[in-house]
Design a protein that fits this description.
The chain is mainly beta. The protein has one domain: Porin, CATH 2.40.160.40. 12% of the residues lie in helices and 49% in strands. The protein is built from five helices and twelve strands. It has a twelve-stranded antiparallel beta barrel. The longest helix is centred in the N-terminal third of the chain and has 9 residues. It is elongated. The two termini are 26 Å apart.
Length: 275
């Protein structure tokens, strides 16, 4: 979600792909943000997009190992005015525009957990596997101008294994109203002690099995990060989509034996066919 050279390459795509005139003239997204899947083409009713994304990312949170991973892309959506209900992968949710300046979202999804074999070098040996768990995700964006050029964003992720919150500011590039173009967000992420311990803590049993020192985590700042999203029509049905993420961990996280790197990074690129 990996090098930053991949981030620069995605930025350069705007120079080589020309936006078809039909996309902006005939299609209007609920909000013109490339990070938001909107396959409705401005019309109420059902819409469906299916594709594939290839990601180059850290193997697990705190890892210094990287791997390529293919992921399905797309969603089944139902649009009714300023509301979109969707099923995307393992997430079921709703997104709605209110008062032209508020984009609200609620979804139930799944955290894929962590397995010992996520580290090919054996750095997770003895820590056991973490099971997949359900999460409630609540998000709000507040536009700072009429055309969603700038906005504030907040997100809360709640689960039975702790909570995480994100706050940031975003900027959109391009004049398209069909959801294509590019955007960048600068964010700060916070976690409570339970969520921090799940990702970076080591209890007594894990310490005995792994040889790593027992580590307790407290809540607070998790990271400062930046993410970039890009979306472009290739023709009437095909979209090109790209994303890059860089997250720099706080000192508390970096001190954990699990955090073998000071950062997490991800670059992904994919194609979606809209039916």
């Amino acid at each position: 979600m990996k090098k930053m050279t991949g981030f620069a390459a995605l930025l350069c795509l705007n120079s080589f792909i020309v936006q078809p005139a039909f996309a902006q003239a005939e299609e209007t997204a609920m909000v013109p943000l490339p990070s938001q899947d909107d396959f409705s083409k401005g019309e109420d009713g059902w819409s469906f997009g299916l594709g594939l994304t290839v990601e180059y990312e850290t193997a697990y949170e705190g890892s210094d190992e990287f791997e390529f991973e293919p992921q399905p892309a797309g969603a089944v959506q139902w649009r009714s005015g300023d509301n979109i209900f969707y099923f995307a992968g393992e997430a079921l949710g709703w997104r709605g525009l209110r008062a032209e300046h508020w984009l609200l979202e609620a979804a139930i999804g799944f955290d894929e957990g962590r397995e010992e074999n996520d580290s090919e070098d054996g750095y997770l040996d003895g820590l056991g596997d973490q099971e997949e768990g359900a999460e409630l995700v609540l998000q709000a964006r507040r536009a700072l101008d009429a055309d969603w050029r700038y906005w504030l964003v907040s997100r809360v992720v709640a689960s039975d294994e702790g909570n995480l919150a994100l706050f940031g500011i975003g900027r959109r590039f391009g004049d398209q109203v069909d959801g294509t173009g590019s955007e960048v967000n600068l964010v700060a992420t916070f976690h409570d002690s339970e969520y921090a311990t799940k990702g970076f803590g080591i209890d007594a049993g894990q310490a005995a099995a792994s040889g790593l020192p027992q580590t307790s985590m407290s809540g607070g700042l998790r990271s400062i990060g930046v993410d970039f999203n890009y979306r472009q029509y290739i023709n009437e049905n095909w979209q090109l989509y790209g994303e890059a993420l860089f997250e720099y961990y706080s000192s508390d996280v970096r001190d954990s034996p699990i955090a073998r790197s000071n950062y997490e990074a991800e670059v992904g690129i994919g194609f979606i066919y809209i039916f």
